[in-house]
């Protein structure tokens, strides 16, 4: 979730009822200010998730677990212990450790409130950084001027609007687990190696099963980006490309429109990880079947045939590939590329590559056949050499791709200012330069500075006196 959190206080009765997710307890819930608890929350109480009777069960002592214990983390743990607050590793890091993957970063969860943490760190003279995090319930101590840790207070989402959450702090670990997206992301790990798993995340991880905590529909409505997170983690965890939980897919389909409310940048970040991950192409096709495309800037009726051809061809090339390269296969035209850019806010590089590929791909095999053709393309002013290499990859031209990769571009013997000295200006100068480069390429890059200058009159003959703007 992003955006600031708003805190509300609930009555004791309301809190008690949240603990167990039992429907009858949801009736008549009020916040302390007398407001009704959100309908989503009440709905959430509608069906209790699969819950473990004995959630604290396993001692993990894998190398991945031990490797997270830097002296700084140990020091932080000792501090929380001294003040009698509980501290555990939370979410994604637990999932990774249990899969014997060293976690990228370690999120920590605690029973201490942000205020309590601040008081503790101030007293112990521990510097805190990123004061911004506080409005998200996260304090970031920097230990020994060496390592930062994000510590988030246990919380419950009281009210959500699909993007932001209104939260309440709690000291109940199960309630915090209950607000998380997937069962595999809902576990905690104590510093003695105990796994705290309330919703069978451990079993799901062993079985490579990707499901939401409780009802998928509710979890997705809390944050529609979770639709894409589902596909991303499916790629990371599942053993088989077609082993989706049917109820989950149904909820994804049902809530597809919610993605329209999520920012392009966040969608693109997830989408990129999905396409380059395991089963990337199959997942993209599944996302299409779930009617997600129109909400994430991709064509409602994508170029499936081209996409299939592209994915098969890319197998012949060494990975990784740019995510945008896969996506370009789904597009029919330059207009599709620009519409996608408008929605997803691609980088300038990605936008131009998508545009270049959709514009040039039909010329491969017709206008462009030899290595020389591609070398000439590389020499054009607005074309980066990398685009041309990507075009060859895209078109499954392995041999030409390798040849172009091995080609060292020789130095063009003429500079723009030499032409300026010959009275040529701006656009016309650029066009002459481009033409001379083509002649130079045709001479196998042999024409000298002097020889090229003698070609200028011929070149000028070919160029209209007031050229149209070239894109
Ligand atoms: N929309 C979201 C985003 C995050 N989370 C919870 O917050 C944790 C941390 O989120 P994040 O850092 O985004 O993902 P990770 O699970 O750590 O995955 P990654 O390794 O890709 O960072 C998740 O594990 C999950 O418990 C959630 O419930 N819903």
Task: Give a written overview of the molecule.
The chain has 471 residues and is of the alpha+beta class. The protein has three domains: 52-206, Beta Polymerase, domain 2 (2-Layer Sandwich), CATH 3.30.460.10; 221-406, cca-adding enzyme, domain 2; 416-462, no CATH class. The chain is built from 24 helices and twelve strands. It has helices at residues 12-20, 39-44, 63-67, 71-82, 92-98, 114-123, 173-178, 201-206, 216-222, 226-237, 246-254, 264-276, 280-289, 304-314, 323-328, 334-344, 348-360, 371-379, 385-394, 398-406, 416-421, 426-442, 449-454, 456-462; strands spanning 6-7, 56-59, 87-90, 107-110, 127-129, 138-143, 147-148, 150-153, 155-160, 165-169, 188-189, 194-196. Strands 2, 3, 4, 5, 6, 7, 8, 11 and 12 form a nine-stranded mixed sheet that branches. It has a three-stranded mixed sheet with strand order 1-10-9. α17 (348-360) packs across α19 (385-394). The radius of gyration is 29 Å and the shape is elongated. The protein starts with 5 loop residues before the first strand and ends in a 9-residue tail after the last helix. The structure holds cytidine-5'-triphosphate.
Bound molecules: cytidine-5'-triphosphate
DSSP helical segment count: 24
Derived structural class: alpha+beta
Give the beta-strand count. Answer: 12
CATH class of the largest domain: Mainly Alpha
Query: Tell me, what's the shape?
Result: elongated
Oligomer: single chain
Radius of gyration: 29 Å
CATH topology of the largest domain: cca-adding enzyme, domain 2
**How many domains in all?**
3
CATH 4th-level superfamily of the largest domain: cca-adding enzyme, domain 2
Q: Which architecture of the largest domain would the CATH scheme give at its second level? A: Orthogonal Bundle
Note the main sheet.
9 strands, mixed
Percentage of residues in helical conformation = 40-55%
Q: Which regions have little confidence, pLDDT < 50, spanning 5+ residues?
A: 1-9, 19-34
Domain Poly A polymerase head: 87-210
Protein name: CCA tRNA nucleotidyltransferase 1, mitochondrial
GO molecular function: metal ion binding; nucleotide binding; nucleotidyltransferase activity; tRNA binding
Family: Belongs to the tRNA nucleotidyltransferase/poly(A) polymerase family.
């Amino acid at each position: 979730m992003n955006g600031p959190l708003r805190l509300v206080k609930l009555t004791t009765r309301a809190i008690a009822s949240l603990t167990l997710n039992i429907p009858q307890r949801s009736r008549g819930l009020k916040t302390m200010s007398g407001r009704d608890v959100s309908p989503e929350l009440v709905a959430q109480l509608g069906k209790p998730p699969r819950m473990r009777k004995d959630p604290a069960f396993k001692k993990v002592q894998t190398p991945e677990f031990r490797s997270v214990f830097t002296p700084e983390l140990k020091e932080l743990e000792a501090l929380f212990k001294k003040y009698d607050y509980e501290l555990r590793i939370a979410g994604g890091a637990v999932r990774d450790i249990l899969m014997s993957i060293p976690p990228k970063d370690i999120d920590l969860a605690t029973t201490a409130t942000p205020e309590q943490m601040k008081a503790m760190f101030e007293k112990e003279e521990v510097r805190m950084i990123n004061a911004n995090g506080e409005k998200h319930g996260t304090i970031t101590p920097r230990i020994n001027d060496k390592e930062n840790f994000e510590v988030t207070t246990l919380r419950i989402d009281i009210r959500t609007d699909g993007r932001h959450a209104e939260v309440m702090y709690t000291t109940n670990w199960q309630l915090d687990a209950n607000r998380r997206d997937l069962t595999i992301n809902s576990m905690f790990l104590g510093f003695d190696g105990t796994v705290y798993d309330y919703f069978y995340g451990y079993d799901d991880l062993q079985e490579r099963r990707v499901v939401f905590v409780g009802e998928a529909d509710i979890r997705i409505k809390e944050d529609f980006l979770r639709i894409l997170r589902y596909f991303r983690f499916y790629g990371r965890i599942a053993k088989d490309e077609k082993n989706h939980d049917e109820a989950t897919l149904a909820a994804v389909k049902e809530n597809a429109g919610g993605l329209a409310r999520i920012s392009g940048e966040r969608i693109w970040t997830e989408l990129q990880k999905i396409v380059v991950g395991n089963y990337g192409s199959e997942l993209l096709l599944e996302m299409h079947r779930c009617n997600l495309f129109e909400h994430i800037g991709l064509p409602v009726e994508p170029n499936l045939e081209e996409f299939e051809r592209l994915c098969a061809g890319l197998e012949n090339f060494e990975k990784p590939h740019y995510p945008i390269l896969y996506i370009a296969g789904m597009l029919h035209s330059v207009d599709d590329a620009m519409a996608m850019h408008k929605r997803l806010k691609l980088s300038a590089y990605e936008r131009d590559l998508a545009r270049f590929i959709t514009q040039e791909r039909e010329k491969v095999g017709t206008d462009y056949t030899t290595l020389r053709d591609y070398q000439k393309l590389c020499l054009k002013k607005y074309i980066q050499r990398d685009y041309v290499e990507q075009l060859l990859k895209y078109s499954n031209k392995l041999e030409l791709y390798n040849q172009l990769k091995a080609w060292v571009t020789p130095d063009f013997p003429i500079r723009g200012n030499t032409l300026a000295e010959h009275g040529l200006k701006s656009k016309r100068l650029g066009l002459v330069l481009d033409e001379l480069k083509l002649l130079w390429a045709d001479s196998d890059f042999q024409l000298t500075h002097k020889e090229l200058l003698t070609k200028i009159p011929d070149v000028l003959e070919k160029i209209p006196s007031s050229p149209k703007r070239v894109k």
